[in-house]
Amino acid sequence: MRDTDNMEAEMEYDDGEEEPSFSDPEDFVDDISDQELLGDVLRDKPQEADGIDSVVVVDNVPQVGPDRLEKLKNVIQKIFSKFGKITNDFYPVADGKTKGYIFLEYSAPSHAQEAVKNADGYKLDKQHTFRVNLFTDFDKYMSISDEWEAPEKQPFKDFGNLRHWMEDSDCRDQYSVIYDSGERTGIFANDVKEPIEVEERAMILLLFLYVVTFSPLMDTKDDPQAIIIWDVLTGQKKRGFHCESSAHWPIFKWSPDGKFFARMTQDTLSIYETPSMGLLDKKSLKINGIKDFSWSPGDNIIAFWVPEDKDIPARVTLMQLPSRNEIRVRNLFNVVDCKLHWQKNGDYLCVKVDRTPKGTQGVVTNFEIFRMREKQVPVDVVEMKEGIIAFAWEPNGSKFAVLHGESPRINVSFYHVKNNGKIDLIKMFDKQQANSIFWSPQGQFLVLAGLRSMNGALAFVDTSDCTMMNIAEHYMASDVEWDPTGRYVVTSVSWWSHKVDNAFWLWTFQGRLLQKNNKERFCQLLWRPRPPSLLTQEQIKLIKKDLKKYSKIFEQKDRLSQSKASKELVDKRRTMMEDYRKYRERAMDMYNEQRPLRLELRGGVDTDELDSNVDDWEEETIEFFINEEIIPIGDLVLPWHYMPKTVFTSSHRRKTFCFLRFSKRRTCTLVYENGTTVVCILLHSDYLILNAQQGNKV
After folding, report:
1. Which parts of the sequence belong to the RRM domain (predicted)?
2. d(CA 217, CA 613)
3. Interatomic CA distance for residues 340 and 119, integer angstroms
């Protein structure tokens, strides 16, 4: 009511004042369209439609009779209902069978468009792959003119060189750094002197083709929601799965080419195809007791192992996909556990087998080495009787390293898988402080690291001749990351592991420390991967052959870089000196300007000249005796490792001084004050014996 009264009061006019008119003049022309005034409202105005925008046509549907029609409808309903509510369907029939195409009507046109986008190309089985189109597209294609018209030329949109960073003249790789508790991410170019920031953002999102999510909430039998695979580009749910147990993560493991993914449940191995997300050959593999499986990183081959069952031995099986052919089966006995370790290129598979041989109480470890590139996949065995701490393959080679033993007697052994069917022990280092092995991506070099509980002990090893290049430490280090070239390696202390001393250090592959970079609440560093080289193997061999020629060019460039750094330092110092000179000139000008004021304050006495008349000074020398020590030089014996570079002695009370000069060649020179020189030779390894008088030889 109060607001109404105020409005009425505002509408009252003073006596005699004419009420304003809001009518348009007679000659007014309204030139503003409804679209300009009410564009946002008109856009939401319901459009007249005949319903065909919500209809899709599905081709390549199985042709079935009346006895199987209901089952087909259930399958179609299950596949297409995930895109929206289906209000009507029509299955054309001829000669007692469906014609192989159907019509589905959705409740909204957007649902129909979603079905076309995601179901087109869906593989129902080996003979039937759906082709899905909008019904309205048929009218569009039927009305295409018979006369061809050249399409309008579209302007070129330049996305830039997406691999511009590989054209860096100094061949600097890049890495990302997550810090500030994960709130900020920076991209840096690796430089020997200091990192060069390329870009920094509050958040950087990573893009994948598919993403898998897990929800602990209960789902229904008909609508699995525990595990969902999403299409990242469209945000569309590709498929949902039930989850019997979340103890093993990741639930799915993907093939190297992304065409297949697999999951393991009790006594079952299920392999799915992309992009249809359907089971390979419409059925899972029944494998009683399956414990673990792993994809080869180089081929579509799955390795899995099954434990012993009564009189049936344990076995490791290699299966080729999609044919499901078993290319190798290896039976094992007295098995406690198995671990699968693939070499990076898939050339070798190591199965670490923990066994309890009959008649013994301890556990023995066998390394079953499968040679994947040879006929019938032969297997070699290496046996170790100590506990295994870590195992790692050389990425681009045929060597592997093993940490074994117990602290404080941890040993590392290096093995070489030779072409003649033998595996040789190359070298063993004992008493190592390490619990992890990190190979260089290019092979040959590795870092033995004692992470976390071992306080960051580091050992840099060259496996070509098995030399320990350097031993160092990064206290409380939690991670080790090699750069793609194998020239540099980073050790770091992550805020996710420790809340103090968060930083990353840059080392050369030889173990020389280059940088210590502290970042507030540093979390993680990852190197930017390099795409596969475009060079052929012959070209790479030629480059290695001419490496000395290229090395000279790189060494010259390094010297130029160092001289450039020296020049920058000289320029910096020269600038500082010039700044100081200018400052001194300003100070002298101020000093001279204040001279009359100083004279006035000091009664006319020019104190500036008091310390400048050096000629009027008088010099007086005072000598007094402090102490005298007499050291006879006869039969003087000095331990060699305690000798200073210069030793002063005196010749009795005549105060003629001499001193000894020692050299690296185990000789010394005895020089007297009067210029006489005596050369002394070291007679024994530990002592220098002096028994000399002036002018005599030792």
Report:
1. 54-137
2. 96
3. 37
Read off the pLDDT band of 655 (50, 70, 90): very low
Q: Could you tell me which residues are beta bridge partners of residue 273?
A: 260
Q: How many angstroms separate the CA atoms of 318 and 164, rounded?
A: 41
Cβ atoms of residues 401 and 413 within 8 Å: yes
Q: Which residues does 80 contact at the CB level (< 8 Å), separation at least 6? A: 58, 86, 104, 115, 119
CA distance 624 to 25: 121
Q: How confident is the model at residue 16 (pLDDT cuts 50, 70, 90)?
A: low
User: Length of the chain, please?
Assistant: 698
d(CA 470, CA 489): 13
Q: In whole angstroms, give the CA distance from residue 259 to residue 273.
A: 6
pTM: 0.62
**Cα distance between the two ends of the chain:** 125
Give Cα separations from 305 to 49, 324, 328, 341 (angstroms). Answer: 60, 15, 12, 12
Token digits for 410?
């941890």
**Which class for 462: exposed (0-12), middle (13-18), buried (19 or more C-beta within 10 A)?**
middle
Closest C-alpha to 674, from 647, 696, 650, 656: 656
Distance in angstroms (rounded) separating the CA atoms of residues 517 and 192? 12
| H or E stretch covering 112 | helix 109-119
- How far apart are alpha carbons 98 and 64 in whole angstroms? 6
Please name the residue that has the structure tokens 């198995």: 338
What whole-number distance in Å separates Cα of residue 309 and Cα of residue 288?
9
Q: To the nearest 10°, report the CA torsion of 31, 36, 38, 43.
A: 130
Tell me how far apart the alpha carbons of residues 167 and 187 are, in angstroms, rounded to a whole number. Answer: 17
DSSP annotation of 164 reads: G
**Comparison of pLDDT for 482 and 247, the residue scoring more:** 482
**E runs forming strands in 356-398:** 364-371, 379-384, 388-393
User: Any alpha helices (H) in 595-645, and if so which ranges?
Assistant: 595-601
The residue whose two tokens read 């093939």 is 255
Beta bridge partners of 527: 175
Q: Is the peptide bond before 408 cis (omega within 30 degrees of 0)?
A: yes
Closest by CA to 492, choosing from 511, 470, 463, 517, is 517
**Residue 498 to residue 521: CA distance in whole angstroms:** 9
Classified as helix, coil or strand, 386 is coil
Single-letter amino acid, residue 237? K
Q: Is there a contact between 175 and 526 (Cβ–Cβ < 8 Å)? A: yes
Say which DSSP state 34 is in.
H
Residues 6+ apart with CB under 8 A from 394: 343, 400, 401, 439, 443, 444, 446, 463
Amino acid at 388: I
pLDDT tens-digit series, residues 591-638: 999 989 988 888 888 877 765 566 666 777 777 677 766 655 554 444
SS3 letters across 390-448: EEEECCCCCEEEEEEEECCEEEEEEEEECCCCCEEEEEEECCCCCCEEEECCCCCEEEE
CA dist., res. 22 & res. 274, Å (int): 68
- Residues whose CB falls within 8 Å of the CB of residue 325, separated by 6 or more in sequence, listed in order: 319
Tokens standing for residue 296: 């080869």
